[in-house]
Amino acid sequence: MLAPIMSTPSCPTPSATSSPAPVRPLAIVSALHQELAALLARGREADFERQRHAGRDFLIGRLHDVPVVLVLCGVGKVAAATTATLLAERFGVGALVFTGVAGGLGPGVKVGDLVLADELLQHDMDASPLFPRFEVPLTGRSRFPADAALTQALATACEAVLAQPQPFGAAAEALGVSRPALHRGLILSGDRFVGAAAECAALRQALPDALAVEMEGAALAQACHDLGLPFAVLRSISDRADDSAHIDFMRFIDEVASRASAAIVDGWLSAR
Ligand code: ADE
User: Fold this and answer.
1) pTM, to two decimals
2) Is 35 a catalytic residue?
3) Is the four-CA dihedral 14, 15, 20, 26 of positive or negative sign?
4) Would you place residue 243 in the very low, low, confident or very high pLDDT band (cuts 50, 70, 90)?
């Protein structure tokens, strides 16, 4: 299923002999190994061309015959923004999908549910009183929208996976995940793990429409906005961002996260 491809140049030069424009690969990005492991296992790692830049391994190949670049970006906003920039500038990707886990904030968002970002915000951005709280100074924005078409394509793939019995396997059921649902809306990002009920409540009060919290998406969104790169962010809910978040997170990420991401990305790529 996997075959090596050459990376495409980031700025293809128009040629007089009108050769077809190279297909720009899709980037699939996760923060942690567990979030990407099942996708990598779809084929032999040796079938990817591996390029190392800025401390990251970029795996270039094909999944379901679609050219892809897979990469673990690391944790946090800077890691996400650096990775998005490398993917656009060095690998010439045409779109970027981030897949991983998040803590649930919205009232009906439970462990095992899926959340697709329609927009993202950095909850730890605060240059007040110079600028309104959460606004990225000099951009006039606090919320960065995800690409609508890409997000809708992933929503369709999510719905197909969720319609299956035991969509994320028996391990998920053993963790109490039953009848997972798909939510769409606002995802928050910040450079800290939210694992205390008081902090979780403060975020809910400040941003009542927030569905989930994680550590990369909004930074990636800001970088992609600057780069003109369409992107989407898909998260499965590993914990409720409360006092037991760290326990639920560790179990979920080891036993479920990888399977959830892979099932949806598989469905999405095979429908392209
Ligand atoms: N990723 C998964 N759970 C999270 C949480 N509670 N806070 C921040 N990032 C997360």
Assistant:
1) 0.91
2) yes
3) negative
4) confident
